Amino acid sequence: MTKRLIGLTGGIATGKSTVANYLATTYNLPILDADIYAREAVSVGSPILAQIAQHYGKEILLPDDNLNRLKLGEIIFNQPEERDWVENIIHPYVRNCFSQAIHESSANTLVLVIPLLFEAGLENLVSEIWVVSCSAEQQKQRLIQRNNLTDEQAAARINSQLAITEKIARADVVLDNSSSLESLLQQVDEVMKSRTFNLRSPSESGKEVRR
Ligand SMILES: CC(C)(COP(=O)(O)OP(=O)(O)OC[C@H]1O[C@@H](n2cnc3c(N)ncnc32)[C@H](O)[C@@H]1O)[C@@H](O)C(=O)NCCC(=O)NCCS
Ligand SMILES: Nc1ncnc2c1ncn2[C@@H]1O[C@H](COP(=O)(O)OP(=O)(O)OP(=O)(O)O)[C@@H](O)[C@H]1O
């Protein structure tokens, strides 16, 4: 059976999790989340965390041996070569988790939350792409507020990703999250009502995109 695989992406803090939670609770759809797999990849005792500790030294770990995410974030959101290095060891693990979960699921529709869907060239993993967007200023403010970041830290994270205009240009569905939560969820309802299963052609999919 061919599954409907909705790839949910957008900029950091534009509202992907908000949409995913709504699709899970209101439409009972299973959610697969790249950020969760990426956390699993670096769990204590994992070979990937060992590689990271070897590359950056033990100082990249917290006293309890967990990854110091703040420290690694400071490195990779400011140094593109280091970001590439980290992604090269984490992304194959994440891709594998998706393939396995899709294979094992009996659901005919699944939602894949993939912040770096375009950057990592994962278009061919999904059958349709939804992009959640908001204005650049809202995005930065929401990120600062939610993660307690400085203006500069938030800008570094945003600038580590492909521009939202590029993501919108490549989307099958665009959800505008620049006003209220109700408006966002209403758009989701409209899309769920109007959009039937629509496979992307394989020729549209696939290459990694430089940021
Ligand atoms: C650097 C890390 C430790 C920071 O952890 P932190 O808890 O602060 O953030 P979290 O993991 O919750 O990610 C939050 C958001 O940051 C953005 N982000 C994460 N990694 C990247 C990246 N390599 N490039 C651009 N944006 C990224 C995404 O929008 C993500 O949703 C972590 O993000 C990480 O391990 N990143 C590398 C793995 C990766 O590429 N993950 C993205 C999903 S595959
Ligand atoms: N319409 C809205 N109005 C005000 N705040 C919002 C709105 N939508 C989302 N938010 C807030 O913005 C923040 C980011 O939303 P959310 O966590 O859904 O984004 P995300 O795209 O999943 O983020 P990430 O890329 O970091 O995983 C959250 O704190 C959320 O509560």
From TrEMBL:
Protein location: Cytoplasm
Residues at which ATP binds: 13-18
UniProt GO cellular component terms: cytoplasm
Reactions listed under catalytic activity: 3'-dephospho-CoA + ATP = ADP + CoA + H(+)
Top-level lineage group: Bacteria
Pathway given in the UniProt record: Cofactor biosynthesis; coenzyme A biosynthesis; CoA from (R)-pantothenate: step 5/5
GO biological process, one term: coenzyme A biosynthetic process
Coiled-coil spans in chain: none
GO MF: ATP binding; dephospho-CoA kinase activity
InterPro entries to which the protein is assigned, alphabetical: Depp_CoAkinase, P-loop_NTPase
E.C. no: 2.7.1.24
Pfam families on file: CoaE (PF01121)
Alphabetical keyword list: ATP-binding, Coenzyme A biosynthesis, Cytoplasm, Kinase, Nucleotide-binding, Transferase
Function text: Catalyzes the phosphorylation of the 3'-hydroxyl group of dephosphocoenzyme A to form coenzyme A.
PANTHER family: BIFUNCTIONAL COENZYME A SYNTHASE-RELATED, DEPHOSPHO-COA KINASE-RELATED
Family to which the UniProt record says this protein belongs: Belongs to the CoaE family.
Protein's recorded name: Dephospho-CoA kinase
UniProt source species: Anabaena sphaerica FACHB-251
Lineage: Bacteria, Bacillati, Cyanobacteriota, Cyanophyceae, Nostocales
UniProt gene name: coaE
